[in-house]
Amino acid sequence: MLTPIIAAVASLIAGIFVGKLAFAKNTQRIEEEATSKAADIVKNAELQAENIKKDRILEAKEKFLKLRSEFEDDSNKKKQILVQNEQKLKERERNIQISMEQTKKLESDLNSQKQSLTSKEENLRKKTEEADRKRIQAEEMLASQVTQLEKIASLTAEEARQQLIDALRAEAETKASSIIKNTIEEAKLTATKEAKKVVIETIQRTAAENAIENCVSVFNIESDDVKGKIIGREGRNIRALEAATGVEFIVDDTPEAIIISGFDPVRREIARLSLHRLVQDGRIHPARIEEVVAKTKKNIDEEIIEIGERTVIDLGIHGLHPELIKMVGRMRFRSSYGQNLLQHSREVAKLCATMAAELGLNAKLAKRAGLLHDIGKVWHEEAELPHAILGMQLAEKYKENVEVCNAIGAHHDEIEMTSMISPIIQVCDAISGSRPGARREMMESYMRRLKELEELAVSFSGVQKCYAIQAGRELRVLVDSENVSDEKASMLSYDISQKIEKEMQYPGQIKVTVIREMRAVNYAK
User: Fold this and answer.
1) pLDDT per residue over 502-512, tens digit each?
2) In this protein, which residues make up the domain named HD (predicted)?
């Protein structure tokens, strides 16, 4: 009986032992797997931490480079402001020195005039005494002659008096005509001398720069690697820039520089600012280029108003109409025979104020007329009137003073001068334009030819925009793709070239390029 029980117990014990061994092995295997997985997790975590660390280091370096670039730009701007302030300070010191010298000269002239006046008063007193003595002698002689005439001629006193009066009247008229003639000649000589003195002193008291603006702008870059981004794949970026701004971008071997060429200063400034923003942003592609150029054009309009307001404040001119202020700001981006129009107008305004003060006229009114005398040149619409007449009409439209309007219209003799300010404006305009190096006739004719070239192309149907580039040797015409087909674009290029040959005179040859770009735009809403 006990044997089966013992066997069963032994089997049970053996099974329990085997189960424990199996459980122990399974537990050990699970522990090893867990240890291996933990090691893998730690290793992966260390790799991820290392990658995150590298990314943070790269981000920190990029942020450092960006901050350093911003700091350098800010430093350069502050340096430029310091240099400009130093130049203005030097110019003010020079003007103060000139004013002190003029004051000393005026004091010396005043003293000499006082001495001369004292001498003249003494001479006048002596002449008065001499005249009184002669008058008494004449009265005595007259009485004697009356007595003799009455005795000799048997004339009455009244008749003798009448004959004597006639004789004295004839003698007085002869002497008076001689005195008047001498006085007029002396006045002419004195007037000429005084006029020359006023003009010379006005020129001496007004300093002006004679620098002539060029037709190119230089855009500086930090590295030549940026040139590749600006050009773009197969030149698409630079073509988009030229099409949007209407100027030529010259990307050559010049180190760290890109040349922006164009005869219109406004276009060059828009191109320069747009390129600066694109390079700073780093995203340079056709769509982004068009967006940036559109924003820059809007900013330029705001800058024009700011320039006009700053100019009238600097000159102390008040109550100017907002439209006239905008025209004054637009002068900054226009030139006359190579001379910047705003600089020329500011100079004329200062000259007019100085000359009017010397002549005892209204200096503020003369300064106002001097600033506005060329506003007809910046009117945004085409007009066949001379710029002086157009400027006068604009001044009348915006309720300017009658004398100011006449001075604007008469400074090139298109109308008759009706006030003393008008000849002052004409003279000061001539002084400013005739300074050595102030103007170039060839520049004005060159810019006029390029404008006529663009206007000729725009006159054709279907033309949206037109830009003359490469000093007028190439004409790029952008047409409406919906109204002008490929075949018509080819014919349009030929028609424009034929019209240029017939109606214009130019050196060499002009390449006419018609650009037709097809765009399909839709919006997902």
Assistant:
1) 888 776 678 88
2) 341-434
Averaged confidence pLDDT in the chain: 78
Q: How many CB atoms lie within 10 A of CB 472?
A: 20
Q: What average pLDDT does range 21-31 have in this prediction?
A: 77
Contact 472, 241 (CB under 8 A): no
Average pLDDT over residues 254-271: 76
- The average pLDDT across 486-504 equals 85
| Alpha-carbon 140 to chain mean position | 80
CB 238 within 8 A of CB 230: yes
Distance CA 243, CA 267 (A): 11
**Phi/psi at 497 (nearest 5 deg)?**
-65, -40
Neighbours of 496 (CB within 10 A): 23
- Which helix or strand (DSSP H or E) is residue 181 part of? helix 157-204
pLDDT band at 182; cut points 50, 70, 90: low
Burial 47-60 (b: 16+ CB within 10 A, else e): eeeeeeeeeeeeee
**DSSP letters along 79-134, please?**
HHHHHHHHHHHHHHHHHHHHHHHHHHHHHHHHHHHHHHHHHHHHHHHHHHHHHHHH
What phi and psi values does residue 306 have, to the nearest 5 degrees?
Answer: -65, -40
Which pair of tokens denotes residue 191? 């007037």
Q: How far apart are CA 125 and CA 122, in angstroms?
A: 5
- 402 near 366, Cβ under 8 Å? no
Q: What is the DSSP string of 323-341?
A: HHHHHHHHGGG-EETTEEH
289-302 per-residue burial string, b: 16 or more CB within 10 A, e: under 16? beebbeebbeeeee
The three-state (H, E, C) secondary structure of 393-446, written as one string? HHHHHCCCCHHHHHHHHHCCCCCCCCCCHHHHHHHHHHHHHCCCCCCCHHHHHH
Give dist(CA 274, CA 292) in Å, integer: 6
Strands 474-479 and 339-340 turn out to be: unpaired
Asked if residues 299 and 248 have their Cβ atoms less than 8 Å apart, the reply is no
What are the two backbone dihedrals, phi and then psi, of residue 508, each rounded to the nearest 5 degrees?
70, -140
Burial of 285 (0-12, 13-18, 19+ CB in 10 A): middle
Q: Which regions of 22-102 does DSSP assign to beta strands (E)?
A: none
- Looking up tokens 């028609």, which residue turns up? 495
Q: What is the pLDDT of residue 178?
A: 64
pLDDT value at 216 more than 60: no
Residue 56 one-letter amino acid = R
Helix axes 286-315, 322-330, angle to 10 degrees: 110
> Mean pLDDT, to the nearest integer, of 101-125?
78
- Which class for 405: exposed (0-12), middle (13-18), buried (19 or more C-beta within 10 A)? buried
